[in-house]
């Protein structure tokens, strides 16, 4: 997977970086299943510690079908980020069409218990000609 982060958003001093890759070896195109892996890095540029609590995803496929996903933490974790720290994780998304997009937000908690949202940048899920050639 490429280490280059293609999509970046900063909200309230927290930066979210996203890199996404189509995974032909995990897709079953003949069965109408396309799979992408995305790598996310969360960076705390604030002067206080913050903890990720929840996630909200809006996944839209090329037909306009929308799937909302809400849950606690990310991949089973609710990382605490001290000032200057980052947290990386990898997850995936499967669609029944060859393209779509994802975006959303995380909810973080400050040390005083108050909450704030951090934008996840919009990023596309698409099969490129290069991806088709690898299949």
From TrEMBL:
InterPro entries: ApaG_domain, ApaG_sf
One of the GO biological process terms: error-free translesion synthesis
Stretches assigned to the ApaG domain: 8-132
Protein name, entry field: Co2+/Mg2+ efflux protein ApaG
Organism: Alteraurantiacibacter buctensis
Record lineage: Bacteria, Pseudomonadati, Pseudomonadota, Alphaproteobacteria, Sphingomonadales
Gene: apaG
